[in-house]
Amino acid sequence: SAADIAVGMEEQFSMFTTASNCEEAPSMDDRLSFAKFVLITLVVLGHFIEAYSKAGNQVATVIMHLIYSFHVPAFVLISGYYSKDLTSARRRKLLSGLVLPYVILQPLFCVAYTGLFYGTDDSETQDGMMTQNWSLMSGRRRRDWNFLYPFAHLWYLISLLCMRIWLPFALEMKYTVWFHMILGCLVGYNDSVGRFLSIHRTVVLLPYFIAGRLLEESGALLRPVGIKLKFTAFFFVLLQVAGSVLASQVDVPLDIWFRADSYAKVLGGYSSYGGLVQLGCYVWTAMCLTSFFTILHVATERKTSYISIAVKETEKVDGSRNQRNREESSWRDSLVLKLAFWGRQSMYVYILHMAVLMLMAKFGYYDSLFEMESLETGITAQVVGTAMLAVLVSVLLTLNLVVPTIFKCIIEPDVSRFIFRRRNALVESESSTSLIM
Fold first, then answer.
1. Contact (CB, 8 A) for 6 and 316
2. Which among 1, 382, 393, 401 is least buried, having the fewest CB atoms inside 10 angstroms?
3. What average pLDDT score do residues 169-173 get?
4. What is the pLDDT of residue 138?
């Protein structure tokens, strides 16, 4: 009921206003779910400010270069980390968690987009622009869509399915990450692949997916880091910011981070250097991922050993300071656990934020972008406001008693009794949500 939803919302928001006494440190799953909340917020932010970047706003372009260089590869790496052997139960989750949602969502989004941004006739002159400078249908005609070309963000469902199926074969190879990096550098020379079943993106992103699985096997992800690596990560962050500013100044195409089209389409006359460009993107993204996961470790680790030792040695002299350390650590752990809870709902945010974006464009949110004379003053303020809105939307789309309750039958349909031969008795700890995000 509406009253139950209101109570649930009050309980979730009250987590940040009540004192916490977190005695248990966040687990690896909690820390990665926390990372997923951060990453999915960046996904929403990138999509919400893309129209400003296309209009030439430098601030939006810098932000997009900065986050697009690593946020999707980080998601793919985490997905690879959780990928295990394809048992019967996991194969069924691939069908119910990836294939079926795509079959449902692809026509829903395409029909909705057609109704919102195309006219009533079938004229070939219609371009289906969502804003004056941006179309999610790539300028195709009103009914020119099908299941072979995923709508906008739905490419991830197809790519993740393909990567999940290919993973057991990839793990049998020596130097498998390097081999797939070479494939990722070569696929862009083929003009016929493109966005068909998201093959281009799948091939380019496969090294991150495989690396995630190898990191899980070795236990190397989020290990304790030394002071040298922390300083290195800090230096990498500064380098990333400087590189993003430079890229926006020299008009480096953002499409190199989208990993969706051939070099001929993205680089034009420089397409012969596409392989080197993609190799540079791999190196740059590896640097970004190193920074991100190092910062993630520092932000989510619990220094219980330090606190306990300090208490024993200086209990009388520094008791108040150690008490503050305990409270700070407890508060931080509690915050990580609460954001991790929202991060576990990241699939809902990923799927539904595009619907929010379409409604924003339809009802004029971006109209003022094309009415202002200055692209660097008034519009920059809009970029900042839109970034704040992206955070708010990310939180609202995770509320457990609102969005998941309403859309669960579409995004996580329970069809085991209808399409599978028998119910599998094996209990898996891996949820269908983790298959996506």
1. no
2. 1
3. 95
4. 62
Please state the φ and ψ torsions of residue 69, each to the nearest 5 degrees.
-70, -15
Whole-number average pLDDT of the chain: 82
Q: What is the predicted pLDDT for the residue at 432?
A: 43
3-state secondary structure 350-384: HHHHHHHHHHHHHCCCCHHHHCCCCCCCHHHHHHH
| CB-CB contact of 398 with 349 (8 Å) | yes
The CA distances from residue 72 to 42, 67, 147, in Å, are 9, 9, 22
- Counting other chains too, the contacts that 250-259 makes at CB distance below 8 Å and 24 or more residues apart are 252/65, 254/53, 254/61, 254/64, 254/65, 254/68, 256/281, 257/64, 257/65, 257/68, 257/69, 257/281, 258/68, 259/72, 259/200, 259/201, 259/204, 259/205
pLDDT at 23 over 80: no
Q: Is the pLDDT of residue 14 over 70?
A: no
Phi first, then psi, for residue 131 (nearest 5°) are: -125, 180
pLDDT value of residue 206: 97
For 301-352, how does the pLDDT look when each residue is reduced to its tens digit (9 = 90+)? Answer: 765 444 444 444 445 445 555 555 555 567 778 888 888 988 998 999 999 9
Q: Which pLDDT does position 8 carry in this prediction?
A: 53
Cα of 148 vs its chain's centroid, Å: 22
* Helix, strand and coil in the chain, % to nearest 5: 70, 0, 30
Please check whether residue 108 is in contact with residue 189, taking contact to mean a CB–CB distance below 8 angstroms: no
**Cβ proximity of 80 and 209 under 8 Å:** yes
Q: Extract the tokens encoding 286.
A: 């590896």
State the pLDDT confidence band at 425, using cuts at 50, 70 and 90: very low
* CB-based contact 81:207 (threshold 8 Å): no
Coil vs helix vs strand at 78: helix
User: Which of 408, 343, 241, 331 lies closest to 21, judged by CA?
Assistant: 331
Indicate the SS3 state at residue 272.
helix
Exposure string for 303-330, b = 16+ CB within 10 A, e = fewer: eeeebeebeeeeeeeeeeebeebbeebb
Per-residue pLDDT reduced to its tens digit, 237-252: 999 999 999 999 998 9
